[in-house]
Amino acid sequence: MKFFPPTLVLLLLFGCAVGYGGESPRLESPRSSARGETTVSIDSEQSHVLEDALSDNPVPDDGDDGDVKETASALQVDEIRPDANGLQDLIRSLQHPMSKGETAETATPTFEEAPFSTRISTSFSDVTVPSANKIWQMSDPQCMRVLKDAGIRTHTPSFPTPFVRTPLLLDSPVEGVVIDSKWPQKSKRRVMDCRLIVSLIQLARRARAEGVVKIEYYSTWRPITTADNCKKGRKGSNCRKVFEQAKKGQLPSQHSRATAIDIRWFTFESGAVVDVLEHYEKHFHAPPCDDRPDTWEGRFLQHLACALHRDRVFNVMLTPNADRDHVNHFHFDITPNVKWYIIR
After folding, report:
1. What is the residue range of 339's domain?
2. What is the pLDDT of residues 83-103, one digit of tens each?
3. What global pTM score does this model have?
């Protein structure tokens, strides 16, 4: 029998261990082992680049709501691609229960550090929230029926709301989350088109699952001054021009339709408040979902926005990464008659 030196035997064993350790492990979701194999498909279709998604005209603002501005900027559609980071996010999301109407592709990742130890156990209505394109196509009765089925109470404003299809004011929480203006006494800024409230159902579910009980925003509706109320002479010429364009359907912003919302504050059950201005870790013009925030607040804001982008319940989603006019809020909106979805 031939004997090998002990040193050679140890080297051979070490080499085998390294070779085995170098194999790529198979990533398997806990759902796969518990319920049988789960096939997760990732949409590899790339979205088109869209420029000038918002008007070049600044939205008239009276300056009483925190100096929120909406100026135009070229917007680039976030690409949906099967990259490694996206795959890891997807696998991580499968470790947690999904909200009503979610699929494996849209489940929200959990946050590693937060003012709570586990995801909030809560039940939501059975309403299925469709994509923003389908939401816009809803008739008034269809839209109102969704709100009723979701247990959302509203009433119609007592004042005129030009250019708003189905103006409403919220009278109840949405899926357990209070959604209100920071200045609730300014009722005009709280007007929402029925279709915006349908989109907010999914926002509320995402936020509530992480412990949020209240969302506060700057404004939803920004009324366009009618020609009769514009200043006389040359000083009111631009005001009258905007009104005439609005009558033709050329509105300066989705805020004019009350299908947009500017969100800044999220309050948790613990009392903690996440402020977009203070806590969003912005990198101007960088794709929001490619960032790697350092704080739990930053991760909460990023994951919430990116999950909603995957849900396709808003056509346009602008974060503080978009430009300096959005450093203090999220702008989410439904844009009529389009097929694209943007996050910046």
Report:
1. 44-343
2. 334 333 433 333 333 334 433
3. 0.67
